[in-house]
Amino acid sequence: MTIAVIGTGFVGVVTAAAFAKFGNQVYGLDIDATKIKKLEQAQLPFFEPGLEELVKAGVVSGRLKFTTSYTTAISGAEVIFISVGTPSAPDGQADIKYVLAAAQSLAPYLKSGAIVVVKSTVPPSTNSKIEAIIKQHTKKDFYVTSAPEFLKEGTAVFDFLNPNRVVIGTTNPHVAKILTELHQPLEAEVVVVRPESAQMAKYAANAYLAQRITFINQMANLCEKNGADVQEVVAAIGFDERIGGHYWYPGLGYGGSCFPKDVKELAAYSRAIGEGDGLFVKIDELNEARIPKLIHKWDEKVSGFTGKTVAVLGLSFKPNTSDVREAPARKVIPLLQSLGAKVTAYDPQALEESKSLYQNVTFADSILDAAHTADVLILLIEWDEFKSLDFNKLKSVMKNHVFIDTRNQYEPEEVEKHGFKYIGTGR
Asked: Does the global pTM surpass 0.70?
């Protein structure tokens, strides 16, 4: 099958490379000529485990090509995925202008019977707008459907190749059949629903996961007041099949390119359709307040950050990605500096992406380099490299010995036996 993927960001590149792996002829289309030139050489503009190898294999085989030409990418495509960004508009809802622009641009080159699949995260009613725009620029028959992505940065290649479900939004049996066949190599359950349900499913999934993180952080706050350990609470409730032991992450709150944006957009969408300020607004408010509240607690526990050197480990928003959008460090570092701290920082992948974001921060090349002469060491992100810290070596290079474990990666007794003061979350 011949496939076009419009947009060569995180979702677009993963989608294009994966479908090329399955033997399809795939064109990755973008208006950014510089990015396309690099992708033609299998050079990625971001870090994602396993993706460079997947792209390189597709390029070498000839099944994966990148282009800026709509004629090249669209004219022979049977299925066209729109995977462009949907930033938040001033009113808080998703801004679909890039999706609509892509629809207008592809329309003159459509092959008769082509299926246009919206993979970008968009609100219900978007498909009808896309269909109306395309009809203004072509007389060809076509179909518009939805297939939202459920990829996690850091494990996106695995997620795409091993999905727990594929959601297809269409009421047309022919479209459902073609897209089911396209996804057949994934050997996943295919859920065919109306487009509006598919689009809401993406928002619902992200909002629910954000809610779990917010919930366990509220529980962590209570645990700190009463002597309980939130990790023990998680272990205890996890045996309940209705709850489960998965996806409990007490810490700094949720971040990244999806959860904050999608929760805010769902809140704005709720207001726009007359559902008022409900749960989604509160989730967003609690998450926004999370880090400032923690910084205040830590400031008291270390007898003030003023005049202290703080080493920050982790600048990306999560492990195994160079993405710094809504990363905890984006709030933590400025707040530490506002309290008079001097900050050094280290991250295995996100150093270059971070250097333009901060002022008066010393960026280190290693954990020990960051910790040198530091008074406080703060672990923000659970990179594998940070899961086996050598506290004996850290003690020898640090001036004072306070360890703030925002991810509860270590047991307090394990750290304290090396002469460190341990500060965790909900413990």
From this structure: yes
pLDDT in tens, 155-167: 999 999 999 999 9
Which regions in the chain score pLDDT beneath 50? none
Q: Tell me, what's the pLDDT at 240? A: 97
Q: Which entry of 258, 295, 336, 361 is annotated as an active-site residue?
A: 258
pLDDT of residue 276: 81
Dist CA 269 CA 379 (whole Å): 35
* CA 198 – CA 102 distance, rounded (Å): 20
Which tens digit of pLDDT belongs to each residue from 285-313?
Answer: 999 999 999 999 999 999 999 999 999 99
Residue given tokens 């509220």 in the structure block = 218
Three-class SS of residue 137? coil
For 16, the token pair is 């294009």
Give the model's pLDDT for residue 257: 87
Grouping H, G, I as helix, E, B as strand and the rest as coil, residue 244 is coil
- How many beta carbons lie within 10 A of that of residue 25, not counting itself? 17
Amino acid at position 23, single letter = G
Report the C-alpha gap between 140 and 154 in whole angstroms: 40
Of 275, 152, 148, nearest to 209 (Cα)?
152
β-strands 421-423, 25-29 pairing: unpaired
Q: Which residue type, as a one-letter code, is found at position 105?
A: S
d(CA 26, CA 31) in angstroms, rounded, equals 17
Q: Tell me how long the chain is.
A: 427
- Report the distance separating Cα 186 and Cα 262, nearest Å: 26
In this structure, what token pair is assigned to residue 321? 């990605």
258 a catalytic residue:
yes
Extract long-range pairs of 61-66: CB within 8 Å, 24+ residues apart: 61/20, 63/20, 63/23, 63/24, 63/25, 63/26, 64/16, 64/17, 64/20, 64/26, 64/28, 65/25, 65/26, 65/27, 65/28, 65/40, 66/8, 66/27, 66/28, 66/29, 66/30, 66/36, 66/39, 66/40
Tokens of 396: 């020898």
Which domains are delineated in the chain? 2-192 (3.40.50.720), 285-423 (3.40.50.720)
